[in-house]
Design a protein that fits this description.
heterotrimer; A mainly alpha; B mainly alpha; C alpha+beta; A: mainly alpha; two-stranded antiparallel sheet; about 65% helix; about 5% strand; C: alpha+beta; five-stranded antiparallel beta sheet; about 50% helix
Amino acid sequence: MSTIAREFTKGLWDEIPLFRIVLGLCPALAVTTTMENGLGMGVAATFVLVGSNGLVSMLRKIIPNEVRVACYIVIIATFVVCVEMITKAYFFALSESLGIFIPLIVVNCIILGRAEAFARKNTIVKSLADGLGMGIGFTLALMLLAGIRELFGAGKLTLLFGDTILIQHPFGFLQQAPGAFLALGLLLGLMNVINNKIRG
Amino acid sequence: MEYFELIIGAIFINNILLAKFLGNCPFLGVSKKMDTAIGMGAAVVFVLTLAGVITYAVEKYLLIPFDIGYIRTLAFILVIAALVQFVEIFMKKSIPALYKSLGIFLPLITTNCAVLGAAIISIQNEYDLIKTIIFSAASAVGFALALVLFAGVRERFEISRIPKPLQGTGIGLVMAGLLSLSFFAFKGMI
Amino acid sequence: MNKYVKMIIALSLIALISGILLGGLNELTKETIENNVLKFKKIPAAAHIFEIVSGKLSPEERVTVEENLLSNKRSFELEENKKVTFFVVQKEGQPYAATIESFGKGFGGDLGVMTGFHLQTGEIVGIGITTLSETPGLGSRVTEMEFSKQFSSLGKDSKIMVKKDGGEIDAITGATISSRAVCAAIANAQAVWEKHHEKIVQASQ
């Protein structure tokens, strides 16, 4: 049981996507203009990640080695198209904000990476745990970056429980392209500092 | 004239990497040395343009007539994956030196958001074949340009003193941000 | 079993499952998606035109108007196999104007405009903005009543251009490109009306 828990928790800090495993940058920079978008993207990616990890693990003994990447791509793409359709039908505003980055989940290196590095060598339950942990970690990372960009860039941030924080004189440029790169870079540095302090 | 605007737009104003954020993973991975950057840039131009043409054909002769537009993502990524495979095989036989220097980054072009992204954008904007080719090639050139510029900058800070937490990707992103800012200047051009 | 046969079976199986799953999901969501695009992007603009024609609506009235517009949507054939959906704005219960969506090149991308044409005279009764990615506070102000009301009661053959280009429209200060885009879009709509108004009027009855 503890190994399963470990597979889950490693995605939340030690191997958190975006900060420690530097993958999945494209959506991270583009959609993190608001925390809501960050959350939406995170949830969508987690859905695909868990689904694909689960299915790849389930079929790992059947998929011949030579065509495994092609199979992974079909599996991942299938889940992505599902997400595309579901968001367009029931979460239209989100699908408009995330735009092209929903179909681009299919080339999110995190998902193909986990399928190749983990799901094909591990049991279904462990793979699901890995996927869920990484997915949630990714979502948290996105929301952190988005929170900073929204608060300091647009000047106001509405937290999930309704409170709004306002800031005078926001740095508008955080909401634009250069600001995204900068914010992520500095945040990465900060994460490294914190990690070094914790891990001594 | 319209084509000229399209080209300038794709390379400078809406640079696929610095403004649209597509193609970041290889951007930070490959740009450490100038030669790999140039090689990767050239490979991406080739693959992206070809992918643009093939996905255009897939859309026009397969997805629209059979009304299965909803699997566009699936169809396109398979096309791109197959295309990269062929390019790999072709390159291994004819330009083995380049093949070796690109190493793992060549198959990684498949997961380069810029390729799939540009293909989808061409369809969304309803470009005809000529515009698709021009847009794809120009976008790829924009990517290559950003890549090469970045490699040049990065080679410089190999020898600078950078605070430890920021070393590697951190400072890379900060520099990318400044590079992106400089491209911002093109916004008022057209 | 032969290696290649195994590969083909595996790939085919996965493709089959994928196909069934996606095909099924598509059937389930197709209509909802189509309606979403109309509901969130086009109907608000058509409702805006309705307001211009029949006066301000309360939030509840607006919901009813939007539902009516959606359920009464019509279409005509633009060219072979290309159908265009449009809405019929009513005045005092009778079909009054048809709304056509068209686009112009704005500062941040395509700017979508819904133009209402009087069914009998072809006069422009009003406009609404459907999609825009303009600069907030500048180009985005084309949605304001101050700007859009300039387009009401213009004859169907009038030349729609900003004053800078020799026309009658006051552009928004600091947002010439966005203002021009709106004019260009309306000009496109005029062209469509010119060519197809008989079909449109017929479909509106």
